[in-house]
Amino acid sequence: MADLQNCDFCSLNPLELFEQVTAQGEKVRSLKAEKAPKDEIDTAVKLLLSLKLSYKTATGEEYKAGSPPTDFTPVSNGPGDTEDNDFVDPWTVQTSNAKGVDYDKLIVRFGSSKIDKDLINRIERVTGHKPHHFLRRGIFFSHRDMNQILDAYENKKPFYLYTGRGPSAEAMHVGHLIPFTFTKWLQEVFNVPLVIQITDDEKYLWKDMTLEKAYQCAIENIKDIIACGFDINKTFIFSDLEYLGMSPGFYRNIVKIQKHVTFNQVKGIFGFTDSDCIGKISFPAIQAAPSFSSSFPQIFNNKSNIPCLIPCAIDQDPYFRMTRDVAPRLGFSKPALLHSVFFPALQGAQTKMSSSDPNSSIFLTDTPKQIKTKINKHAFSGGKDTVEEHRKYGGNCDVDVSYMYLTFFLEDDDKLEQIKQAYTSGALLTGELKKALIETLQPLIAAHQQRRKQITDEIVKEFMTPRKLAFDY
Ligand code: TRP
Question: For the chain, which end, N or C, has fewer CB atoms within 10 Å of the first or last residue's CB respectively?
Fold first, then answer.
């Protein structure tokens, strides 16, 4: 295993190293062309070799002219530095466009790959299941290395799923269901183990919250997660505050990651500053560690090479770019990823739903009446101002939040298409579109509340107990 101690240029990130190797290569070439003195050429060649070695140590791969490292591309963010005004990091999602973030541009900026028709067809072929509507409708739209997971699956090789949740409040909203609903589908069609990390430590560090409160939110959120229908024999759910103190395997991976990522790197990826507490600075290692199977020796029989697939919203990608960057240096394989779009706030797709603004979200605890009132009062409409105008010009589904929500929650493709046609032509009015959404969400949330009620403390405890799952390794 390569170690950073052998690295002369370890303060540079892989992309900077790549650029230095390229520049030094050019320098050597021009010195040779100029027939410079031998000792000058030798010194330049020595530096080039040392840079190449550092590059290999940092990335786990040989330097290849013209192919920069894919996972460690610093992502430009923030207003003013790109032609669009999209801003996406794990804490903020903001755009000036009413249609929402431009996801195609995000794929280019993050260096991930689009989930295209070919990949969706392959998932269908390999699993024998109709692709989930989140795939068919581009709600999960981007990936990293999904083809490798499918290769493994086709060759009867194991892999596991990892996802998580930061418990920022006791009540979750409907947007939080998206990754879990999809993860449950993946668990069913691939029949694989699943680990779910509850980052109560993260919320303690980032929010004004006591440790006790963070843990309490974790337990309440875990009940909502279990209510999504995960198989108790195939799922391990853990609170960081609890599991970190119980598992040498987990903590060992955390310190390995901490040793191989510099402050410079996390500053570049997450924008930390000198006044951020050191808890925040080291937290990314804690979110990275579950990507490696040796963090769960009880599940994987101490094996460290079981590949991992992470379904998550795209704002979590910075954590996993870092994870993929560090993995080869630790001798582990890089986790694969499936990225979803954000769930828009009721007020419009410029931002994502927030748990702290009750009117921006529909909560899993809302009553049928609250659901109705919130949608009628707050859901941003793409309809026209008057009935006459609406009938004449039609509504705009691209910016209409009720329509967007239906793409997430109305499974029937034909019904959704009918609604789109009717709204666009002006035959369907905004009130009627909202009614369709209200009638879709009310039973869905009521059913969730019913399932949640059945979840006892014993069930929660069992999901959270480190144990072997229904798989042998
Ligand atoms: N940081 C995430 C949040 O705030 C929680 C999380 C931890 C997570 N591990 C994850 C999300 C893995 C997706 C995948 O919600």
Answer: N
Give the pLDDT confidence of 290-316 residue by residue, as tens digits.
Answer: 999 999 999 999 999 999 999 999 999
- Which residue type, as a one-letter code, is found at position 76? S
* Distance (Å, whole) CA 145 – CA 292: 16
Give, using CA atoms, the residue closest to atom 8 of ligand 1: 164
Average pLDDT estimate for 226-254: 97
Query: How is residue 161 annotated by DSSP?
Result: E
Question: What span, in angstroms and rounded, lies between the C-alpha atoms of 282 and 206?
Answer: 13
Q: Which residue's CA is the nearest one to ligand 1's atom 6?
A: 164
Distance CA 339, CA 337 (A): 6
Rounded to whole angstroms, how far apart are CA atoms 124 and 114? 17
Select from 91, 140, 163, 241 the residue to mutate for testing ligand 1; criterion: most ligand atoms less than 8 Å from CB.
Answer: 163
Three-state SS across 322-361? Answer: HHHHHHHHHCCCCCEEEEECCCEECCEEEEECCCCCHHHC
Q: Do β-strands 194-198 and 160-165 pair in parallel, antiparallel, or remain unpaired?
A: parallel
* Band (2; pLDDT cuts 50, 70, 90): very low
Summarised one tens digit per residue, pLDDT across range 49-77 is 888 888 877 776 788 887 777 665 445 44
Contact present, 130 and 124 (Cβ < 8 Å): yes
- The answer, yes or no, to whether any atom of ligand 1 lies below 6 A from the CB of 344, is no
| Cβ contacts of 212 within 8 Å, gap of 6 or more | none
Ligand 1: does its nearest atom lie under 6 Å from the Cβ of 167? no
Residue whose structure tokens are 């249609």: 99
- Ligand 1 neighbourhood includes 335 CB (under 6 angstroms): no
Pocket test for ligand 1, best of 144, 183, 198, 199 (most atoms within 8 A of CB): 199
d(Cα 235, Cα 304) in Å, to the nearest integer? 18
Closest residue to atom 10 of ligand 1, CA basis: 164
Q: Measured from the CA of 290, which atom of ligand 1 is nearest?
A: 9
The answer to whether the CB of 112 is under 6 A from ligand 1 is no
The pTM is what?
0.83
* Burial degree of 38 (CB within 10 A; 0-12, 13-18, 19+): exposed
Residue 337's φ and ψ, nearest 5 degrees, are -135, 150
Q: Which atom of ligand 1 is nearest to the CA of 310?
A: 14
